[in-house]
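User: Hey, quick favor. My workstation is busy. Could you predict this chain's structure for me?
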Amino acid sequence: DSIVAIDSSDSQTIFAGLEAHDGTQGRPAINSFNLEDGRQVLVEMAKDRNAILFANASGNSGMPQDAAERVQNLARCMEMMDAGGIPVEDRFLDALVFPVGAGPEFGGHYLDAVRELRRTYPEVHIFGGHSNVSFGLPNRKLLNQTFIELSVMAGCDSVMIDPVIEVVRVLRLLN
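Assistant: No problem, here it is.
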């Protein structure tokens, strides 16, 4: 079975994608649920369609400012997924990777949040858009590789990666 990820910032577009999805070909995944207005309906959609649900740390008032806000926002998402009956194994939490070129503290915010999420929710999947860390910087391949390894050591068990990195090294860390 294959998994089709339906990704949009518009909940109605995600609903349309779920309507068009052929469930006989595999389960859908919804990318992504967060605390922004109108996104909470995605929990019900995921439950109704037996979908995997990606949740990110965006808050109702915008992007998180530090590790604590990332964890707080995702904890609220976890509570909503608990109430909505989404199985823990179908939840993927994204603490949001921001480019370190825009703020050198952003990498640490992400890694600290991942460590705390892993400690608090040992059974949930944790991932991120790891190549975002190097946006706008030179030597992206090395920075991406290093950041992915740090992320896995912090507690990520799933990664979205740039396919030119050393995938074998990442897979060894994940196993």
